[in-house]
Design goal:
The chain is about 65% helix and about 0% strand. By secondary structure, it is an all-alpha fold.
Length: about 475
């Protein structure tokens, strides 16, 4: 009987303990990682705005037909669309990789496995059109994220001020009692500054939980992916539609925002769990995605963009930044050709790779063979020729530097003011042979203009000294040295 009573009591205790709900784990707050999260939020906002109707219309009507793109990159709009969508997806994948990493710190299981969710969406295992957690009002979401980003930027600045005040107080205290008045004043400022920092931490991402922020970013990432697939998926990238539309139809087709009407659940968190089952059936129909969107979405895999840069391109030869700097140097030297000395020309020459040096020597020998004197009309013609080339080549060079600078800042988690520069607007995808021919022509023209300016300066010096024999001797020596 005693044993039976004990058994009944034990079973009752087990049933009671099993009926109790598990104590929820405390949700972690973002804290010091708020600056990295603010950077990724800023990138997400920029990516969303780059998919607006006006941005997409500008892409098709101004960027694709621009002279630099059509001359060096491609005039095939299908190929340019492929480059554009690849870059958008690469940017989105970088955001998704950060969201996935932050999701590991969440309590929500669906957020912890966001990496697999995003991969399934990209691969077509999950139809994004049937998801209930997509953001219905993206503008409101963007404004909310902007407030977080701005508050976090302000927090960063105020924390720097607070650190400076703390260091100042420590230094004043170490200096002895001769600065007691200053110490009290600085301590008062420090107290006010700490209150400002505390207030900004509450308003910024610092005191937000991982679950809240990651859910916001996860929903936004999936919504932006849907926008990319909707906009770029029907313009020849998939092969379902051709680009033989008239301009009006193409513009309407390219910016069809009305088709982007997705259902949004009343409880996004619950819908997120329902849309992301652990086990799923693969027998359902899989969506057909653009070829750029069907590539592997695993984080850390080879960039989609690098697959487009063959060895015949400047980027594929790892010379895009190098050639961009050469073009920018030529552009600067052309403004003051009369000030270019031997040292500056030698520095520019040493910047050139071997292939371009060889091409330049061959062009200079063939062009300068029959030139004994540099005349003003030809120098003027060269100036116009160079200006014409720089009018479409220089923007590509500057865009290359700007694009790379933004990525360098991102690596240090610095929030930067972003531009809408795409990699196809740079020298990265430019044909190397055509690019080197254009740069070579710039250098030949710059060389002629520099020699003309030097000749004019020498003639002025000769005229002032009446030493004409020395003048012509100098000219002959320059010509002989140049041809050698």
């Amino acid at each position: 009987m005693v044993a039976e009573a004990w058994l009944v009591k034990k079973v009752a205790l087990l049933l009671e303990s099993s009926s109790k709900k598990p104590i929820p784990l405390p949700k972690q707050r973002i804290g010091i990682l708020s600056f990295e999260v603010a950077n990724i939020m800023s990138k997400t906002i920029h990516l969303h705005r780059s998919l607006s109707d006006s941005s997409l219309s500008n892409l098709k009507s101004e960027i694709f037909p621009s002279q630099g793109v059509t001359t060096l990159v491609s005039s095939d709009q299908t190929h340019l669309l492929d480059l554009a969508v690849s870059e958008k997806l690469d940017d989105l994948s970088r955001v998704a990789s950060v969201v996935s990493r932050l999701g590991k710190k969440c309590n929500e299981p669906a957020l912890q496995g966001f990496e697999h969710v995003y991969e399934d969406i990209v691969n077509g295992a999950i139809d994004f059109r049937k998801l209930g957690f997509l953001v219905k009002d993206m503008e409101s979401m963007v404004k909310k994220m902007e407030r977080f980003v701005n508050a976090t930027c302000s927090l960063y600045c105020e924390m720097e001020v607070m650190n400076e005040l703390e260091q100042a107080v420590v230094k004043l205290k170490r200096s002895g009692g001769q600065h007691q008045g200053s110490v009290k004043a600085f301590e008062q400022k420090l107290m006010w500054q700490r209150q400002d920092v505390k207030s900004l931490r509450d308003a910024s991402l610092w005191n937000q939980t991982y679950d809240k922020v990651v859910e916001m970013l996860a929903r936004t990432v999936c919504t932006i992916y849907g926008r990319i697939e909707t906009v770029f998926g029907g313009l020849g990238v998939r092969g379902k539609k051709e680009l033989s539309l008239n301009p009006k139809e193409a513009r309407e087709e390219f910016t069809r925002e009305a088709d982007f009407g997705f259902p949004c659940g009343t409880n996004p968190g619950r819908m997120f769990m329902e849309c992301l089952p652990i086990s799923r059936s693969y027998n359902e129909e899989v969506i057909t995605f653009p070829r750029a969107m069907r590539s592997s979405s695993k984080f850390g895999s080879k960039s989609r963009l690098t697959q487009h840069a063959s060895a015949s391109t400047v980027g594929g030869s790892a010379l895009s930044l190098h050639y961009a700097n050469v073009v920018i140097v030529v552009e600067k030297l052309l403004k003051y050709p009369h000030l270019i000395g031997e040292e500056a020309r030698d520095d520019l020459y040493q910047m050139l790779p071997t292939s371009l040096k060889t091409l330049l020597k061959a062009n200079l020998r063939s062009y300068m063979k029959n030139i004994s004197i540099y005349d003003a009309p030809l120098a003027h013609d060269w100036k116009e020729t160079i200006d014409g080339i720089l009018s479409w080549l220089a923007p590509l060079a500057h865009n290359m530097i700007r694009w790379q600078s933004e990525r360098n800042f991102e690596q240090h988690n610095q929030i930067v003011k972003r531009t809408n520069v795409l990699l196809l607007q740079t020298l990265y995808f430019a044909d190397r042979e055509k690019t080197e021919a254009a740069i070579c022509k710039l250098l030949v023209g710059l060389n002629y203009i520099c020699h003309y300016e030097q000749q004019q300066n020498a003639l002025l010096d000769c005229a002032s000294s009446f030493d004409y024999e020395d003048c012509f001797e100098w000219q002959s020596q320059c010509q002989a040295a140049y041809l050698d």
